[in-house]
Structures are given as structure tokens and as C-alpha cells.
Amino acid sequence: MTRFRLDLGYRGTDFHGWAKQPGLRTVQTAVESGLERITGTEVATVVAGRTDAGVHARRQVVHIDLSDAAIEKLIGQSNRSAEVALLSRLRGVLAAGEFHDIVVHAVAEVSEDFDARFSALWRSYQYRLADHRSFIDPLLTQVTPRHKGELDVEAMAEAASEVQGLHDFLPFCKPREGATTIRTLHELRVVRDQDAVITIDLRADAFCHHMVRALVGGLIKVGSGNWAVTRPAELIAEADAGLTPDVPMFVTPAEGLVLTEVGYPAPEDYAARNAQTMARRDQE
């Protein structure tokens, strides 16, 4: 088996998220169906981070394993490399199958140590939000939710600075059985862009279910004056102390969220990173 890394992006508007679901249009279903058509066999994908329904990805990462027979069928009678053939043919079959909302950026052969999920050092997201001060670009309305009134971005930025680091993000996560809510949040930054649209950038080793949109929701509560600047940090401190804060999550609309990038170590460090990630998850 030969392993390949696929870098791709998609507009999540018309997808029910990444993961396969019977009878629903998902990114994984589209990609795996395309791979089966060009290789003649079922191909399983491993993704860096599953995205929810309506969430977009600018740079998502996937790995797949192909047998020699699958590669032979993929290349056919051409003299192209497997990488070039895979990139060209997957792009073509997705477009022909009316999946123009998926873009395959690049394909590269990688070592078997590379794992799209476990080798990742961090994932970064951006959330776009317009308020009363923002210029509403008609070309971006589908990916920019609106908030009534004006938000205090300075207060949101201050609150964001107080929750970075290694914490239990239970107040801002939807827990899954057997999964940890402890994460390292490397960056949480809130600014207005040139159109006064609020952009919230987040980077962490990983994110638990709904964590990004719930954190954004908490910052909106701060910006609207419903929460004190210190409230998000206070909730996380309670969780760090082993308490379960009784505060309902405010999860913001999916259309404002984009997975922007996934970071990986140097190839010689893939195996060590895999072991570190999996060991930590087992212990937690």
C-alpha cells in the first residue's frame, strides 16, 4: 500500500458536514465516491478534523492508502506519476459529479508514518461575523452571519486573551462519551478587518465538538454586554477545578466558520507525534 496526502477545501453550505451519513450529501461521501470511480476499489479516507454541517474548509487534509492495483488503474495508459494522475482525475470526477464546491489543492505521496489526524500539531479556524458597524459584502453574505446592534470588540479581545492555554473547555464543548474536553488553545484573537467585519481566529492542538462556535458564542455574550469580560475565564477555571458549570452553551451559526489550516511537523517527526497524540488521548 502507498500512502497519499490530499490537501483540499470545500464550501460547506450544501454539505451535511464531513462524515458519511446515509442518504445525506457529505464531503467524505463525495471524496470517497470519486476515489472509487478512478481507482476501481473502495478507498477509506482519514481526515485531520471533521467539520459539522454548514462549516467550510479552506485547507483540509486527508490521507488515503492505495494498492498497486488501484494505482495501476488510476494511471492507466498514461506516463503520469500517481500523484499527478490522482490530482487530475479526482478534480475531474468531482467536477463531473456536480461537486464544484470541493477543490483539491494538492496530492503528495507520503510515508506510512503520516497520519492526517494524529500527526497534526494544530488546527486553525476563523469565524466571520458582521454587526451594525460592518460593511456587508453581498458576495460574502452566505459565509458571514449578522449580529443585531454593535459588539464591543475590545471587550471580546480581552476576554479571549484570558482563556488561552491548556484548560478543560467543558463549558464550551458538547462532550462525547470516552472523549476528553481538555485542549491547548494556542491562539484566540478578535479584530475587525478593513470592512469592520469581526474576525475571530482560533488555533489549538485539537477542538472538541462545538468548541469553536461555543467559544465564539461566549465572546458575543461579552461583546453584547450580557457577560462580564471575565466570565469565559471564570467558567473555564471552574471546569479546571473539576466542577461542571451549569451554563447553557450559545453555539453560533455554522456558516461563519472556516477551517483555515492544519499544521504538521517535519516528516521525520511524524511517528513520534502520532505516538504522543495517541498516548495523551488514552491517558485522558
UniProtKB/TrEMBL annotation:
Catalytic residues (UniProt): D52
Which GO BP terms, alphabetically?
tRNA pseudouridine synthesis
Give the source's domain of life in one word: Bacteria
Q: What range(s) does the Pseudouridine synthase I TruA alpha/beta domain occupy?
A: 159-265
One term of GO molecular function:
tRNA pseudouridine(38-40) synthase activity
Q: Quote the Pfam families the UniProt record gives.
A: PseudoU_synth_1
State the EC number(s): 5.4.99.12
Keyword presence, Transcription: no
Cite the binding residues for substrate: Y125
- Reaction(s) catalysed (UniProt annotation): uridine(38/39/40) in tRNA = pseudouridine(38/39/40) in tRNA
Name the CDD domains on file. Answer: PseudoU_synth_EcTruA
Identify the InterPro entries for this entry: PsdUridine_synth_cat_dom_sf (IPR020103), PsdUridine_synth_TruA (IPR001406), PsdUridine_synth_TruA_a/b_dom (IPR020097), PsdUridine_synth_TruA_C (IPR020095), TruA/RsuA/RluB/E/F_N (IPR020094)
What keywords appear on the UniProt entry?
A: Isomerase, tRNA processing
NCBIfam families recorded:
hisT_truA
User: What's this chain's function?
Assistant: Formation of pseudouridine at positions 38, 39 and 40 in the anticodon stem and loop of transfer RNAs.
- Give the family, as the similarity comment puts it: Belongs to the tRNA pseudouridine synthase TruA family.
Q: How does it assemble?
A: Homodimer.
Full protein name: tRNA pseudouridine synthase A
Q: Which gene encodes it?
A: truA
